[in-house]
């Protein structure tokens, strides 16, 4: 009698384990399909991004594709590509919004690393005056002027000398004024930079 009961219990446990195994198998199959779908979508996205890069740097012309070191609308200087966003007042951005726009383009706000780069900023700021200028990658942090790459300001780039760094201030390039600090929440035009491609 006890042996029969034990056998029935084992049969019941076996059936339960088989049911659990089937459920786990179904879950595994579902997860495998999700992984395959994610891989397919990832591959499609990579192809799409690659195509965008090709189109951005090598646009189609009547003679096929003509490749350039910078995307259409950007200008090359030395080993960098620059774009200045000469937005109308109602489309201008705060410093943080401008930085997000640059990052969305695979670039960032300009970090001035030479007198030549400072001159480029001044050149593209043509047409701006007073408090209308262009954001670049310098702001006050902890009472110091800091570049977005984390380095401190090299004072020789500021003419004549930088003013005290007041948190919540960012710097813009203004024609005839060089660099001026203003509230980071002010809306301005902005300049993005990225490394040029070797073509």
Q: Write the CATH homologous superfamily of the largest domain.
A: Mannose-Binding Protein A, subunit A
CATH-assigned fold name of the largest domain: Mannose-Binding Protein A, Chain A
- Contiguous runs where pLDDT drops below 50 for at least 5 residues: none
Percent of residues in helical segments? 25-40%
Approximate shape: elongated
Determine the strand fraction and express it as a percent band.
Answer: 15-25%
What structural class results from the helix and strand content? Answer: alpha+beta
N-to-C SSE string, H for helix and E for strand: HEEEEHEHEEEEE
Q: Radius of gyration, rounded?
A: 29 Å
Distance between the terminal alpha carbons, to the nearest Å?
87 Å
Number of domains: 2
Q: Can you count the helices?
A: 3
Whole-number mean pLDDT: 82
Name of the level-1 CATH class of the largest domain: Alpha Beta
Query: What would you say the CATH architecture of the largest domain is?
Result: Roll
